[in-house]
Amino acid sequence: MRVLVIGDIHTPVEHPAYLSFCKDMQAKWKCDKVVFIGDVVDHHCISFHPKETDAPGPKEEYFQILEHIKPWYKTFAKAMVMIGNHDARPERVAAGANLSQIYLKSYEDVWDTPAWEWKWETIIDDVYYTHGTNNGGIHPSFNLAAKMGMSCVIGHCHSASGIKWHASPRARWFGMDTGCGIDEDQYAFLYAKKQARRPILSCGVVIDGTPYHEIMACGPKEKYYHKKFKPAIGRRS
């Protein structure tokens, strides 16, 4: 398999150039399979943390997300989506209200993505893919790979990006952090403005079980600089 791994996009507050970047990487590496590593949607309106005053309400955010998912679904018509902690917020809210999951629609139905397969984890060519909820540290995927005893690809930690290897006398395996595709100047990420570590925009590629990593050139004068693209919903800069 030639797998393109797309980082956390957090629609409707994704970076306006990230879709073009991922499309270009799919073509460059001739990928025949696509995995979204999770947090496809942000769900800021039902966050368990304080809401930003400029944030949309639940209904408005739902329709914004629905509109933003459309071009991703059109570009990557068949994909696996690892369910992230932000994607799963409605389930957590329902559980907090003692509401059975039987009352909730599937992710495919909620986001009108019938050809996407939403799941918590998957294994392709002996590589384990999951969102990475509850994993952290400087090298989150490397830590998970040590626990799993197998190669792992995760997202979740926006400032973690790259590949790090384990080796023993009998085997070699890796952890890859995909990075993300967020727009840090959107309202949903104001909480991180004072953090020293910044999000890294990037994606992963895994060819027959071997990892490769691509950084998105998004600085001024670079190909994917945000001002060259239509803003997602209204940038602060």
Any overview of this molecule?
By secondary structure, this protein is of the alpha/beta class. Helix content is 22%, strand content 23%. It has one domain (2-228): Purple Acid Phosphatase, chain A, domain 2 (4-Layer Sandwich). The strands form two sheets. It has a six-stranded mixed beta sheet with strand order 4-3-2-1-10-11, covered by helices on one side. Strand 8 and strand 9 (172-178) form a beta hairpin. It is globular, with a radius of gyration of 17 Å. The termini are far apart.
**Whole-number tally of structural domains:** 1
Find the structural class using helix and strand composition. alpha/beta
| Tally of DSSP helical segments | 5
User: What is the CATH topology classification name?
Assistant: Purple Acid Phosphatase, chain A, domain 2
Task: Give a short account of the largest sheet.
Answer: 6 strands, mixed
Radius of gyration: 17 Å
Helix content: 10-25%
Order of adjacent strands in the largest pleated sheet = 4-3-2-1-10-11
Quickly name the level 1 CATH class: Alpha Beta
How many strand units? 11
CATH superfamily: Metallo-dependent phosphatases
